[in-house]
Design a protein that fits this description.
Blueprint lengths: L10 E5 L2 E8 L3 E7 L9 E5 L3 E6 L6 E4 L4 E11 L2 E8 L18 H16 E3 L13 H16 L5 E7 L3 H10 L2 E12 L2 E11 L10 E2 L8 E2 L7 E3 L4 H4 L6 H23 L5 H19 L9 E3 L5 E3 L17 E10 L4 E9 L5 E10 L4 H18 L5 E5 L2 H8 L7 H15 L3 E5 L2 H9 L4
Parallel strand pairs: 9-10, 18-21, 21-22
Antiparallel strand pairs: 1-2, 2-3, 3-8, 4-5, 5-6, 7-8, 10-12, 11-12, 13-14, 15-20, 16-17, 18-19, 19-20
Helix pairs in contact: 2-3, 5-6, 7-9
Protein name: NudC domain-containing protein 2-like
GO biological process, one term: protein folding
Pfam families: Acetyltransf_3, CS, RVT_3
Length: 466
Amino acid sequence: MADKLAPEKRHIFLHNGQKVFEWDQTLDEVNIYINLPPKVNSKQFYCKIQSKHIELGIKGNPPFLNHDLTSPVKTDSSFWTLEDDIMHITLNKRDKGQTWASPILGQGQLDAYSTDLEQKRLMLQRFQEEIGYAIAANYWGQGICTKAVKVAVSQVFKDIPDLVRLQAFVSVENQASQRVLEKVGFLREGILRKFSYVKGRVKDVALFSLLSGDTHSLQTQVLIFHKLNLVETVPIQGPLWVESDQIDLCHRSFYLPTAARRAAVLIWHIWQNRNNQVWNNSKVSARQVGIKANQTWEEWSLVQGLIEEQPGTVSQHDNNTVQQHTAITPATQWLPPRPGILKCNVDASFYEAAGYTGWGWCLRDHRGRFILAGTNLTQGRLNTFEGEAMTLKEAIEEAMSKGFSHVIFESDSKNVVDAISFRQVGSSEFSIIISHIKSLLLLAPNFEVKFTKRQTNNVAYERLIP
């Protein structure tokens, strides 16, 4: 389990040298904690929260507090509870992110230094969040936590646009939890000595972090030996999104020597094999990975015209294997867009046995140069139309978020492309996704969706590799 840190130290509100209550605040709310007098029935306490005023006390007695608040609050989401002889009042700030010097207007205010520290802490809180998780012992070792954290991490950076840093604190003794974070892509920053108090013991904890930029990186460690049957891999960390500067070897390999191109193909197949192991619990041997990479390289080279073979030509791959090829004519090619326009090819994949639906897309310019790509995986088996539509929707959203103005989106699902042009609106999940896509296209008049044959779409993705 990833441990949760204790809350920030509370401030003490004093009046005539006497403690009235304690309080703290987050970006969204102010919390007030009042110690209740003993031997008073809980039903006798009351608290009235207004937009700019608070009153509380014991019924039939003068109010304990009857003051204006420092700033307005949202009354519909502010509330109070009684917990172990403590009245806990939660005031939801109307102006999110505002730093309060005191809950009570003009009284008990923090000094200038403390206010500055509080403001810095809240500003840091705006860009930093903490993740924690736990799972019953019966389900340990099944990869459930890893999958759940992956989904949570990919979503949290979407839900909190300002989030820069996600961190976790794990006991140094909890190696399993540390492996979960490392698989998701968290970086271990170090050890905080005697930092956490758990079950009567003061323990060391390991600090892990994941930055928003880390979700756009693909940290791959690969050991490539000369013979394909000696290929071994170290687990790949990180990657939901791949940007151009992190895949430089792949998108520039068209201009590289043959050895570098083949290495790029091999790396891609190793990465694919790792993903199959993580998500589908299936993988092939290192030799099979090498054979598949070799086949992909030859097919791509023939399509691109880098090698030419006539019918009956014999290619000798090693001392024991001789294969015969027939000429392949690149009848289907990926056509680049006009200068100033980007082209994005999208496609979905379905893992029925594992119950997952995946999708991916890649964006290139008029010279075929790689610009941006993304993949995603969702639990649940969507039908073919829904999966293809989700792929297109996500690609459009990401292109808009990056500020691209002229983009052609190509999908090999004619049903999806045709549905976008239809005026009729349905109530199915597929229709809802299509309606969302239509709304996005209204906001981006220079975006265009076109149908392309599956062979062309496949060639488009193959161009990304070598």
